[in-house]
Amino acid sequence: MDRLKSSARLMIVSDLDHTMVDHHDPENTSILRFNALWEAHYRHDSLLVFSTGRSPTLYKQLRKEKPMITPDITIMSVGTEITYGKSMVPDDGWVQFLNQKWDKDIVIEETSKFPELSRQAETEQRPHKVSFYVKKEKAEQVTEALNKVLKGRGLDVKIIYSGGIDLDILPQGAGKGQALAYLLKKFESEGKQPVNTLVCGDSGNDAELFSIPGVHGVMVSNAQEELLQWYAANAKNNPKILHASERCAAGIIQAIGHFKLGTNISPRDVSDLTKDIENAHPAHEVVNFNLLLEKWRRAEVEDTELFLAGLKAVAHPTGIFIHPSGTEHHIKDHLNILRKVYGDSQGKPLKIWVDDVSASQIGSDTWLLKFDKWELYGEERQGCVVTAIMSTKESNWFTWVHIHQTFLEQSGKQEWMF
Ligand code: GLC
Ligand code: MG
Prior knowledge:
alpha/beta; 8-stranded mixed sheet; 6-stranded mixed sheet; 11 helices; 18 strands; binds magnesium ion
């Protein structure tokens, strides 16, 4: 990972299902709070790692279903696949390492003798992961028996039970914890060990994350029985582990505050964003500006004139806006067009979020910004890439000098992108 030149201020390593992603929250409230917090305050000097049991296929599917931002590192298939960046470049060194004392064919042959095991979907069978469903009552006994037979066949495996249903068989050196240890070692050898690491999880396959030395950990309030049992037996006296009182991503935000790892006030928690313009970082302005647009289009504004004046205050007098369709306006005129779309999403819960915000200073008072911007409108979603220039020349705050949007491939309708 060479996006950062020095140590990450914070590295968050989070599980997805029922940790970062709340499947019982159709409004996606807590993940959107986390996204805004991360992009405004952490993206520029910190690292986000997703660590999921899902295969690449199911991971990509989840990305389409939920408003997820892009992690710096993606660990999939229960710590057996590590990829870097947006383009997900695989870590071949990790694959080589996992080949030790592993033979998938033997695992398949031996497990077929257990009628208690039912095989998961083909997408979830991976080079270093063989996965089944097994009832809670049978899990312990099957695990024990399997361990014995596979050892007898010369394999060194790890069997993990999660969510009260999933049973994964992996090479002994694999798993979410081992994958994290591997990454930390890699960072250390480059002299870039994160200042703080926070691991986040809810189920059995996350337990290993909490036993990596030095890390802070949060078990979200909705954590599964098997993780809480592991905690009670192995880590009860570790003050670096928190069982949050909040669910999913809200529990992660809670832990950032609890362990004092940095700010945990998401721009989505700030009641009057129009007054919040003297930001320390341009990424913060990017997040705030887009949240204001969301509020406007949801008709959640008390004093519309004051609100528009607030938006105009962050537009450079001669700033230009290029819409993805190619039309061009002064930013100030564009903001006047906003009057027409006040509350246009009423009835449909519009959500706007930005992803992968990068900012580079290109002059004493000038910044070049790039980010993806997404709008979720009912069930439909569309995105654009935004490049922008911001300046602090004429004021104490960041003003938008230039905004250029280009539709991302996945786009559908064109009208509703502001
Ligand atoms: C995910 C995977 C599944 C695995 C489970 C627990 O749901 O899709 O294969 O068994 O995580 O690790
Ligand atoms: Mg989970």
